[in-house]
Amino acid sequence: VFQRDVDVVDLTQTTGIGKYEKRLSYNPDPRLQYPLQYIPTPDRLLLNDFNDFLKRQLPEPEGDRKIDFFAHWGNGINANSKEALLEIGFTTMRGDKLRRMGSPVNVSFVIDKSGSMAGYERIETLRDALASFVDKIRPDDYVSIVSFDTETKLLLPAAKKIDAKNIKSIIQGIEASGGTYMYDAMVLGYEQLLLHYSPKGTNRLILLTDGYDTSEVNVIVGKSKEYNAKGLELSAVGVGTDYNQSLLSLLATEGGGLLHFTGTAGGISDVFAQELESIVRPVAKEATFEILYNKRIVFKELYGFPVESVGAEKAVIRMKNLYGGLNKIALVKFDLHKPSPEILSQPVVLRLKYIDAETDKQVTVEKNAALIWNDYTGIPELVVEQEQKKLYAIATMNQTLKVMAQAVEAKNNTKARQVLVSTYTQMRNLFPKATDEDVRKLMESIDRYIHAFDMQQQNETLKKKQ
């Protein structure tokens, strides 16, 4: 029923005259027998943020600005255009100026040293990155270090940086071994932060792990939320290509921090450089971003940030606190209605509002994004620039997988398959050869899910015939 030729016995090599007997035991491939069991539910869908693939470093804010944004359209439009894509890049100040400006930092490192951290020089590179990080911590910053495998150890109680050599010696003594029990280590790290909690400063736990633990996810996240409610933040560094993104994303999101990904051991140092920029005092508080459009340029979808509200002429993104070293983009897709050259005089208005964390004053930055008219008479591409095209493709496929998971949860398999097929066709048009490795892997996953729905339909048809 599920696989061809599993009940075929090949007797072509049998010679002579005699009695031949053979018994077959067939265990169907569960992915073919129960294909929908391998479609992830929304809470188990693992996706990489398309910003993880952003290679460009956006320009630093100009002048005295601590945060800025930049916008450009994916391509020019003409009378045949139905859609337009706007890229918006957000950047904040970084470097020594930022570190001098920030108030003292209260940070606790919680380090997974279980056996799973032993491969690919992960623990060795982690030690070097931590040591480099310590060199950049200021005299008034509080630091604590907790390690865990099967047991939890407080390697460095919370204290100001008095003896860097001693801290480095402790770090170099970390060796990978044993099982994984994150819960107690996370709690101990949070308790160290509470010893020197500063309402006006940054109090953050930095969790370095592959994210797999013996405790249930809801137990770990629930406990972390209790400490988040006390004003403590959490950033997570997912180590390895197979880290538990679901758990670490939940912890970082609830903890108001960042989720970093290090696919290789060498990437850990880069992650620490980013994290050092982000753990100082926020450069902007209570940040919101408004996108104002009109009846001819209508908001359709946004990738990269959650949308708080969408109205007839305005969409609002609530960004909360923004830290130093931010380098992130959002992609906004618009529907175009009867475009003509006159549409250029009706730009999309972009408005960033925030409270300057240093001066405590409200700041508003507003810019216009006018479309570009193209006299080309054919149907113009939505995106021309190659990196932007890749980011758009990943964002689109991520969104498709979310819709698929939600449709399956609602038992609407027809809708789930339709959105997969539509996106797969669209991606084939964008990338006819699909030579980019990241794009190719996502397209293959979409193709596998389409096959799963087809297999489910085939199984149901066969059952009816039996």
Strand order, biggest sheet?
Answer: 5-4-3-6-7-8
Structural class: alpha/beta
According to DSSP, the number of beta strands is: 15
N- and C-termini, Cα separation:
10 Å
Number of helices: 11
Shape: flat
Helix and strand layout, with pairings?
Layout: H1 30-33, E1 67-73, E2 83-92, H2 96-101, E3 105-112, H3 122-135, E4 142-148, E5 152-160, H4 164-172, H5 182-195, E6 202-209, H6 217-228, E7 233-239, H7 245-254, E8 256-262, H8 267-279, E9 284-292, E10 297-303, E11 309-310, E12 314-322, E13 327-336, E14 348-356, E15 362-369, H9 386-409, H10 413-430, H11 437-465
Helix pairs in contact: 3-4, 3-8, 5-6, 6-7, 9-10, 9-11, 10-11
Description:
- Strands 5-4-3-6-7-8 form a 6-stranded mixed β-sheet, with helices on both faces. Strands 11-12-9-14-15 form a 5-stranded antiparallel β-sheet, with no helix packed on it. A 4-stranded antiparallel β-sheet has the order 1-2-13-10, with helices on one face.
- Helix 7 links the parallel strand 7 and strand 8.
- By secondary structure, the chain is an alpha/beta fold.
- The mean pLDDT is 82.
- The chain has helices spanning 30-33, 96-101, 122-135, 164-172, 182-195, 217-228, 245-254, 267-279, 386-409, 413-430, 437-465; strands at 67-73, 83-92, 105-112, 142-148, 152-160, 202-209, 233-239, 256-262, 284-292, 297-303, 309-310, 314-322, 327-336, 348-356, 362-369.
- The protein is flat and about 90 Å long.
- Helices cover 33% and strands 25% of the residues.
